[in-house]
Amino acid sequence: MAITDRRPGVKTTVVSRPKTMKPRPKDRQVWAYVAILVFSAFFVGPFLWLVLAALKTPAEWGSQPSILPEHAQWNNFTSALNDMDFIGYAGNSMFLALTYAILITLSSAAVGFGFARFRAPGKKALFLVVISTMMIPQILTLLPTYVLFSRIGLINTYWPWVLWGLAASPYLVFLFRQFFAAIPRELEDAAIVDGAGWLRIFVQIFLPLSRPVLITSFLLSFTWVWGDYIAPALFLDLDRTTLSVAITAWYQDPHGNVIPTVQAAAATLYILPVLLIFFFTQRYFIRSSLGSGVKG
Asked: Quick check: 2 and 15 in contact, CB under 8 A?
């Protein structure tokens, strides 16, 4: 770029500025893909390491560490299924995860619907109180909850998960509230004119429209319970516990030492249901994340 002084009697000077090269859109796209691949490696790497560990022998795991197994030990997966009641413990985990996910999804949707569509004094202040409970670490409330459930005789039963599901989740309430608040009020007014009550409006109109959020809520809730270790270990005995606890308690040799390769195979099988569920529901998960933006 040149700058010229045009005043009379003044010698013209030309100043050249270096041109700055702007990155082309294609270059930006390439670097974006490179960044995505790098970050993906951090997430895929641990799971890939787990699968490779499940295919090794105990010697390759311990005294002779190696990245790739010399010969894939597929019998580790057979041992993981047969050395303990894998299917039975998986059934316990599935029952708890499904029960909790269904109940907390419906209860959170109902609470979120109330915050989004009802008019009441103090609603915003109450909503802030509900959201603020997300700042409390769950581990802090686990011991008081255990004392409470033990006094009413709910230890070693599945009732704690039922009560937790009926109590709704602050994060899921926020998610449903944001989605329901974006629905035009004319749709609700038309249903009221036709004689529909609030329960019918919620069940027949708002719930079908919120299918992406329902699936996202179910997926998150199912994953929370399926991957939880502390609560089942604290509230349930070994016969009724979940798969996450059973994997750490079994798979030992005659000397009482843990067999890490079989344990890795069991952990790989333990992860597969969540991966399959997310694979089939990821489009609804992404759609919900995009559609539940912040709205006052």
From this structure: yes
Residue (of 236, 100, 97) closest to 167 by Cα position:
100
Task: Tell me the CA distances in angstroms from 17 to 2, 8, 12, 20, 67, one per residue in order.
Answer: 7, 24, 16, 9, 54
From 73, 96, 129, the end of a domain falls on: 73
Q: Which domain holds residue 239?
A: 84-291
Same domain, 57 and 94: no
pTM: 0.80
Q: How far is the CA of 208 from the CAs of 109, 180, 199, 200, 213, in angstroms?
A: 12, 11, 13, 12, 10
Q: Is 202 helix (H, G, I), strand (E, B) or coil?
A: helix
pLDDT band with cut points at 50, 70 and 90 for residue 238 = confident
Rounded Cα gap, residues 70 and 72, in angstroms: 7
The answer to whether position 4 is within a domain reads: no
Alpha carbon distance 193, 201 (integer Å): 11
Phi, psi of 250 (to 5 degrees): -110, -165
Question: Residue 293 pLDDT more than 50?
Answer: no
* Number of domains within the chain: 2
**Tokens at residue 57, please?**
């022998």
Distance, in Å, from the CA atom of 199 to the CA atom of 51, rounded to the nearest integer, reads 48
